[in-house]
Specification:
Layout (H helix, E strand, L loop, with lengths): L2 E3 L6 E3 L1 E4 L8 H6 L4 H14 L3 E3 L8 H9 L8 E6 L14 H15 L4 E6 L8 H13 L3 E7 L3 H14 L4 E7 L11 H8 L2 E5 L23 H4 L8 H18 L3 H10 L4 E6 L4 H8 L8 H11 L8 H4 L2 H6 L6
Parallel strand pairs: 3-4, 3-10, 4-5, 5-6, 6-7, 7-8, 8-9, 9-10
Antiparallel strand pairs: 1-2
Length: 345
């Protein structure tokens, strides 16, 4: 397993990490993701550790805390072998302090996560969404306190806009607070919006991308095909309205390109899609999920080999879209274009 620095921090994380969103599977959304029980969860953790996948990502909102609880059970006795990443800020109830990133919410959310995970520290504690109702100074000072007392090692964000992240970084620098080192983002061959502003920001500010949904919300599995009905067991039947939208023609153009590259490499379509991401700038780790052992082992096959320059170019051409204003004028410039080029090319 390749290990990469998480942004400009000293923390080294595996290029692939495991998302525990399928653990427990409670509720309409998370039940559609999967309903992994504790025995299967332990087995998936075993396979990950054997492959060098040592970072496990979850969130308090996943199955109303049950994902954190099951992950804690699955790693029991081997806490020193893993990197635990969790998130908070999304609603966990209807109370006044059940959502957001206020001091009260963050302290309670951290304590709850520690209890559910069965640990005394969290390696990476992330804000699951920007809280416009709480001053950024309050959020950052609280996180800094949690780092100083040792309950949290590193802090990051998820799903922030460019200005939200940049303002947070600037305020944190002003007061010497613990710095956001990562941004958990949606990024895939059918969702490259990350490249327009957040990637240049990450390059400039040393913020590493931890990629969620690398298969485009389940669309790049190889089972969704032009002219064919959606597979009966696809989670898209229940979750399509929750995830990022994709136009059919954009999807099928990418799938056609993936098909061609998969045949050239002898790899599965999901492996090709994930390998493409692993070569993009700022990407520190790609989160892979799995309902079962077979899915996990297939996703693990995305590492240990590299797409060629020509193969990357084919996938780039099939997935590139014109950026919206104000980015499209710069998209034509060589310097801007290089920002999203594969690493080392």
């Amino acid at each position: 397993m390749e290990f990469r620095r998480l942004g400009a921090s000293g923390l080294k994380v595996p290029a692939l990490s495991f998302g525990a969103g399928t653990f427990a599977g409670r509720g309409a959304l998370f039940g559609a993701w999967g309903n992994t029980d504790i025995e299967e969860a332990r087995r998936l953790v075993d396979i990950c550790l054997e492959a060098g996948v040592t970072m496990f990502d979850t969130a308090d909102v996943y199955s109303d805390g049950a994902s954190e609880e099951m992950l804690g059970e699955a790693i029991k006795g081997r806490r020193d072998q893993v990197i635990l990443s969790t998130k908070t800020s999304l609603p966990m109830g209807d109370g006044p302090h059940d959502a957001g990133s206020s001091r009260s919410r963050l302290i309670r959310a951290c304590e709850d996560a520690l209890r559910r995970l069965g640990t005394d520290y969290i390696d990476l504690f992330q804000m699951h969404a920007f809280d416009a109702g709480t001053p950024i100074e309050e959020v950052l000072s609280t996180l800094d306190d949690l780092v100083r007392v040792g309950k949290v090692r590193y802090v990051g964000v998820s799903n922030f806009s460019g200005w939200q992240l940049m303002k947070s970084l600037a305020i944190g620098e002003k007061y010497s607070h613990a710095r956001y080192v990562s941004h958990q983002v949606y990024y895939s061959l059918v969702g490259r919006d990350y490249e327009w502003e957040l990637m240049p920001l990450g390059i400039d500010q040393g913020v590493g991308a931890v990629v969620w949904s690398p298969l485009g919300w389940g669309r790049l599995t190889g089972k969704v095909r032009r002219g064919q009905p959606l597979p009966a067991h696809s989670r898209l039947h229940k979750t399509v309205d929750y995830g990022p939208p994709v136009q059919d023609e954009d999807l099928f153009r990418v799938v056609d390109a993936l098909d061609g590259v998969a045949k050239e490499t002898g790899k599965a379509i999901p492996q090709v899609a994930i390998n493409w991401l692993l070569q993009r700038r700022t990407v520190s780790s790609v989160i892979i999920g799995a309902r079962n052992e077979a899915q996990l082992r297939q996703n693990l096959g995305a590492i240990g080999w590299t797409l060629t320059t020509d193969q990357m170019a084919k996938l780039d051409a099939a997935s590139t879209k014109t950026a919206p204003y104000p980015y499209f004028p710069y998209q034509r410039q060589e310097g801007f274009a290089r920002l999203s080029e594969p690493i080392g090319r």
